Amino acid sequence: MRIKAKGSGRNREFEELTLPHLGALYRFAVQKVRDAAQAEDLVQEACLKAYRGFDRFERGTDAKAWLFRILINTIVDAQRRGSREPTALALEIGNVEVERSHFLDPERQLLAESLGQEVQVAIEALSQDWQAVVLLSFVEGFTYKEIAKTLDCPIGTVMSRLYRARQALRQRLERHLDVDPRRATGTGPSVTPIELLRARRKARGKKEG
Amino acid sequence: MDCEEARFGLYALLDDELEVSKNLEILSHLEGCPVCHRELELDMRLKSLVREQLVAPVPSPELWNRIVRRIEQEAEVARRPWEGFAKWWPPARPLRAVWGALAIVLVLSFSLWILHPGQVPSPFVEELVQEHRGSVTRKSGPVDLPSTDPAEIVRHFQAEVPPLSPVPLLAQEGARLVGGSLCHFKETKGLRFTYEVGPGRTVSLFQMPRSTRALPFWPKLGPRYIAQPQAPGVLLWGDARFLYGLVGELPQEDLRRLASHMKGI
User: Fold this and answer.
1) Are residues A6 and A56 in the same domain?
2) Are residues A94 and A174 in the same domain?
């Protein structure tokens, strides 16, 4: 479906920039609010905001980061509006972010029967800020620079949040990590992690060269 | 490179965020260090575990269509704003709307009251005319204090009327000051200066402070000519402190000419 409102050139440009990221935006929203209908509403609201402010979007810059920034602000606003929901809170004591896992209902942990659920619970147990960097980096494949732009914070902060989030996840999912790394990476039995990294570096070197 | 340094760069290496030279350094360390190598394996496993296990939901095919429809609706409302109004009217909370409407009416009334030049209340104009007529027909003479010096008249009545400054003066050939009187209007006191403008013809120049509700609020008034059927003409004007009225059996142009030659104002 095409936008038929006035300004066909602007509309087409907006569609071209937004539509490819709709799935990722939705995926991120679902992870954040854990409700499909609410996630759709949030994505819709974010897209509307983006359309309204499209004239302020600097052409040539990263549209994905721009859209995610709007979505994250929309989610934060929605959570603020319904701040009665404790799950939406990122707990901070001074500058130290506290993992929410300390406050998780033990019953809920027992309910995480399958591996998928366990990973989900582990992600949910992270503070909002840590969750955001993990989802953007692991799932959406954002670079540190893109994450910094999206969350409007320095790259150092992104790295530190990612480091701490990884440590926390490793602790919670420890028993599932201790397997044959070749199988774990899904790369087949003949490639070790180092070989994989070397191959990637080579490919990158070629691309840059 | 030691283990601590290598560990620090491990995640960045894994996320492909390191410069090529740093990348190589860490890779060579990893090959010779089983402990760091194990760390790398765990981190790689963690990343792929999260990627694999997190359910990747897909939005409903209708989502984009819904977004497009909302955008078009908004654009339509922007083009035809009354439709936006029709959407929220009648309001869900009528009482709130009533208060809102009342507030709007109040603000509009106050703005009109402030901005409108103000109508001079007709009873006040009538008072001026009566005062002028009374002075003409008075047996004891038209003035309480005969004098050709307006300053003297002001001084004489200063206990009753706040000192007028500057003292008004109709300085035109053919207009001769004969004296002044104290006037009592319904809501204020003022001074009347009587000028002879011809044989047996006088005009009254009134000056009174504006501290009265009967007078228009607007600080800059007139000059405004108020035609009185079968009665002398009245020309009114004012400044922030005083209101002036020139009353006489003269055509409007003559009254205006006299007022335009008034000195000391």
Assistant:
1) yes
2) yes
Average pLDDT over residues B102-113: 86
Contact A194 B40 (CB under 8 A): yes
Q: Do B75 and A6 make contact, defined as CB atoms within 8 angstroms? A: yes
- Which has the closest alpha carbon to B6: A140, B22, B119? B22
pLDDT digits (tens, 9 = 90+) for B163-211: 666 666 776 667 888 899 988 887 778 889 999 888 878 899 988 887 6
Complete domains list, chain B, with CATH: 3-53 (no CATH), 122-263 (3.30.200.100)
Q: In angstroms, what separates the C-alpha of B32 from chain A's closest C-alpha?
A: 11
Could you tell me the pLDDT band of residue B243, with boundaries at 50, 70 and 90? confident
**In contact, A166 and B49? CB cutoff 8 Å:** no
Do A7 and A76 lie in one domain? The reply is yes
Q: In total, how many domains does chain A have?
A: 3
Mean pLDDT of chain B: 78
Q: DSSP letter at A91?
A: P
Q: How far is A193 from chain B (nearest CA, A)?
A: 7
CATH number at residue A22: 1.10.1740.10
Q: Report DSSP state, residue A153.
A: S
Cα dihedral A124, A128, A133, A139 sign: positive
The residue range of the domain holding A205 is: 183-209
3-state secondary structure of B37: helix
pLDDT (tens digit, 9 = 90+) per residue, A111-128? Answer: 555 778 888 889 989 998
The pLDDT of B85-101, averaged and rounded, is 71
> Nearest-CA residue of chain B relative to A146?
B17
